[in-house]
Amino acid sequence: MLVLILGLVLFLGAHSVRIVADDWRSAMLQRLGEGRWKGIYSLVAIAGIILIVWGYGLARQEPVVLWFPPTWLKHTALLLNLVALIIFAASAVPAGKMKGRIRHPMVISVKVWAFAHLLSNGTLADVVLFGAFLVWAVLDFRSARQRDRATGAEPEFGPARNDAIAVAVGVVIWAAFTWFLHAWLFGVSPLA
């Protein structure tokens, strides 16, 4: 579990700099330059991801079961992950109505994804992993909205066809994960 926690500290710590030390981040960006800053940031995040994957894999070998989720929660999680992937896709395509209304769709998608996985998994490692991502996403969204208010940032709206693209992309990614990729990558089928 220690490896998983260390990975979460590195990965989510790197992604939390704007939450806890935005002025320091700005100073470091100016001092190091964008390229060097992004390089260091990426190395820390990649190290975190590697440790998360390794640590979660180790924790799954001897799981500490906290509860057994009922089947209906697993079905609910499937639907929530569909929503999460559509919102995630909205963050990657040009702005439509959805992206403007949601504001910070990538962070919202992480919230929904983490919550869905907390519902459908009942081990200590799951609570640590997905709970950490959920707490981070809540704090990051709050911080981003505070920055929006402080700077007067306005939401970006575009044509509704971009929402249709986001929905289509999200559904395709969800279907690929549901029927193939999740089992292949993580050894667990969401349909089981």
Instruction: Using the alpha-carbon principal axes, give the shape.
Output: globular
Query: What is the domain total for the residues?
Result: 2
Helix content: over 70%
Distance between the termini: 25 Å
pLDDT averaged residue by residue: 94
Q: What kind of sheet is the major sheet? A: none
Number of helices: 9
Tally of strands:
0
List the helices and strands and how they pair.
Blueprint (H helix, E strand, L loop, with lengths): L1 H13 L2 H4 L1 H11 L1 H28 L9 H22 L4 H6 L2 H16 L3 H28 L8 H27 L6
Key traits:
globular, single chain, 2 domains, mainly alpha, 9 helices, 192 residues
How do you describe this structure in short?
The chain is mainly α. It contains 9 helices and no strands.
Outline the structure in words.
The protein is mainly α and 192 residues long. It folds into 2 domains: 1-62; 65-192, no CATH class. It contains 9 helices and no strands. The protein has helices at residues 2-14, 17-20, 22-32, 34-61, 71-92, 97-102, 105-120, 124-151, 160-186. Helix 1 (2-14) runs antiparallel to helix 4 (34-61), helix 1 runs parallel beside helix 8 and helix 5 (71-92) runs antiparallel to helix 7 (105-120). The longest helix is centred in the N-terminal third of the chain and has 28 residues, at 34-61. The chain is globular and about 45 Å long. The two termini are 25 Å apart. 28% of the residues are buried. The mean pLDDT is 94.
